[in-house]
Design brief:
Helix content is about 50%, strand content about 10%. It is built from 30 helices and 15 strands.
């Protein structure tokens, strides 16, 4: 087996992919990167940072014959071409680059919620040129039609649907970087006939020199296996490439940096050991298991947010800013963050989030802890706490912490404390945080929330328990202790077996609308029977009458008349409306009604708009009815 390690110009790789000269072996899985990973990849190229090594295999090999297939998104003629090279490793990266940098630049991908979307990618020219350290913020994605809408699609926030509008707003499309004629035409017309022609000319010249020209010469290293490579060698190399060593994270890098702090050594006679300090945080986490998902890098981000928020520059939690931490800065804030984590744990329990696995967005705990440090005890003042709750639930129900989080961290740390504390002085003119003002929820999303993979699904589970709901069989509220003791989880109201026997569609059957928190034993008692059957049995088992049971079940926002008559459609419509009102209460704003009245399905956020996912593994089947305890 022979190999070489060439450096490929990205422009050449895109050309070869489009011509079919580079294809994939047929065993490669389908393309599936989400929009944030694509955006981050484009940031890497824009910064000129390495994006890893590709592995290629020369074709015309007598010993290895893989059926080729073209890279997704390439023209039809690529399918008919005979490839010179097969891409063994780097499919997701090269496919993302090809689709976003070629043709119309529209990529079929998915958002952080796994909703199928079409996106285009742009660079904010002014932002990119003004501060290279903030290039990450300058790379943005917009819908495939180039129009970013707000207010449930009624208002246009940014219109980049034509080249003229791209130039007007100062957003350069990634699709033109390697399209020389299109690029030159776009750049030539950028100054336009505006009053600030000279300023715009200078801006675009800087952009071309500092951003575009380096990107056009971007190269990617590769391992190219020659024609003598055996199938066994391919398998071995492929396995090694895909199970390589883990990169150092910022915690490990700072461990080395802090250990070399001369001033600390001079004062204490010993090196500072970051891992020993982290063990103090681990003790806090061990005492509050709901914090179990917090990592050492999360802790460092919280400290960095506090350092930068109190510094001369902008608030940040980006990796490069974490790595700039000085030991004296870390020591100033680390204990305060640890103390705040204890408060965060109680905040979660107050919101009926009792286990680490039930936290909708673990990343949201980072700004929550920082906000507590900034506010201090004022965080528990009634009006302040109310606003913190609104921000917290807007982030969850609005599903805003699922993608890139560093920018949102910084905005929330800057905006939320000021807004929250102004609840105590009657200032109604305070700036509403972007996480609150930008949060939206559509009625049809209730139809597509079906597993705990969705943050809003977990959020509704907690909100239902917070209404004061009790278990149907046991006289227990869902507080921290009872939640664990009862083994509470989300279970079907109309059991899966009943739904299947009565031809209820899987989409409706698995929706959060048909689920509620119940004890494990209660769910087992219900089994797969009709509600018309299991409710009378529950009355006997619980030793209560029908009216008492109806009050308990009704607290779960369920129409008990519909449930007792096993009228699924009536039940579903009523509970969907009740859950929507619960969402509105938590977010402090009106949700979008996008499902026609009286219709079971419909809307922009219906299940078919999202990637398929299996049934929630927490309630895979209806257990046999348990008539015992």
């Amino acid at each position: 087996m022979g190999f070489q390690t060439p450096q490929y110009k990205l422009s050449k790789l895109l050309e070869q992919a489009g011509d079919g000269a580079i294809q994939l072996p047929d065993f490669q899985r389908s393309y599936k990167w989400d929009e944030e990973r694509i955006r981050a990849l484009l940031v890497t190229v824009t910064l000129g940072h390495p994006l890893g090594v590709l592995m290629l295999l020369q074709t015309s090999n007598d010993q290895v014959r893989f059926k080729p297939k073209p890279i997704e998104g390439t023209p039809p003629h690529a399918t008919a071409a005979v490839p010179d090279l097969l891409l063994l490793d780097g499919q997701q990266r090269l496919t993302s680059l090809y689709q976003s940098l070629s043709g119309d630049g529209v990529v079929d991908t998915e958002d952080p919620r796994k909703k199928q979307v079409r996106r285009r990618f742009y660079i904010d020219i002014k932002k990119a040129v003004e501060d290279h350290a903030r290039l990450d913020d300058s790379v943005v994605s917009v819908p495939g039609d180039g129009i970013e809408r707000t207010n449930f699609g009624k208002d246009i926030r940014l219109d980049l649907s034509t080249s003229e509008k791209e130039r007007q707003h100062g957003y350069f499309p990634f699709r033109l970087i390697y399209d020389q004629p299109g690029l030159l035409n776009w750049l030539w017309k950028f100054p336009g006939a505006a009053d600030d022609v000279a300023e715009r000319t200078a801006l675009i010249q800087r952009f071309q020199a500092e951003i575009l020209t380096p990107m056009q010469s971007y190269e990617i290293p590769a391992i190219e296996l020659d024609k003598t490579t055996t199938k066994g060698a391919v398998a071995t190399v492929f396995e090694k490439v895909n199970t390589g060593g883990l990169p150092l994270n910022v915690f490990e890098l700072l461990t080395a940096t802090f250990a070399g702090d001369a001033k600390y050594f001079a004062e204490h006679g010993d090196d500072f050991r970051l891992n020993d300090d982290w063990q103090l945080t681990e003790q806090v986490i061990a005492a509050h298991p709901v914090l179990g998902g917090i990592r050492n890098t999360d802790f460092l981000q919280a400290v960095t947010l506090l350092v930068t928020a109190h510094g001369p520059s902008f608030t940040s939690a980006r990796k490069e800013d974490v790595l700039r931490l000085e030991l004296v800065q870390y020591l100033e804030w680390a204990n305060k963050v640890r103390e705040a984590l204890v408060w965060v744990a109680q905040f979660l329990h107050d919101e009926h989030i009792h286990r680490a696995r039930d936290i909708p967005y673990p990343t949201q705990l980072v700004p929550l802890a920082v906000i507590r440090v900034i506010l201090g005890e004022d965080a528990d003042v009634h009006g302040v706490r109310s606003r913190l709750r609104q921000w917290f639930w807007c982030g969850i129900i609005g599903e805003l912490y699922g993608g890139a989080t560093e920018t949102r961290f910084a905005r929330d740390v800057d905006q939320v404390p000021t807004w929250a504390i102004q609840a105590t002085n009657g200032d109604s003119g305070a700036q509403i945080p972007v996480t609150v003002s930008g949060a939206t929820f559509a009625e049809s999303r209730l139809l597509s929330l079906r597993t705990r993979q969705s943050a809003a699904y977990k959020g509704l589970h907690a909100l239902l328990m917070a209404t004061g709901a009790k278990d149907w069989k046991f006289h227990k509220t869902f507080d921290r202790n009872q939640y664990v003791a009862l083994g509470v989880d989300v279970h079907h109201i109309f059991p899966k077996k009943w739904c299947d026997d009565n031809r209820v569609s899987p989409a409706l059957r698995e929706s959060i609308v048909n689920k509620t928190p119940l004890a494990t034993k209660t769910n087992r008692f219900v089994g797969g029977a009709s509600p018309a059957i299991y409710l009378p049995k529950l009355e006997v088992a619980a030793g209560i009458n029908a009216q008492q049971l109806d009050a308990i079940v009704g607290a779960h926002l369920i129409d008990t008349d519909a449930l007792r008559s096993a009228d699924f459609d009536r039940f579903f419509l009523g509970r969907r409306q009740a859950l929507l009102e619960l969402v509105e209460q938590a977010m402090g704003k009106r949700a979008q009604r996008d499902v026609d009245a009286g219709e079971l399905t419909g809307g922009d956020e219906a299940p078919e708009a999202f990637a398929e996912e299996p049934d929630d593994p927490q309630d895979p089947d209806d257990l046999p009815a348990d008539d015992g305890d």
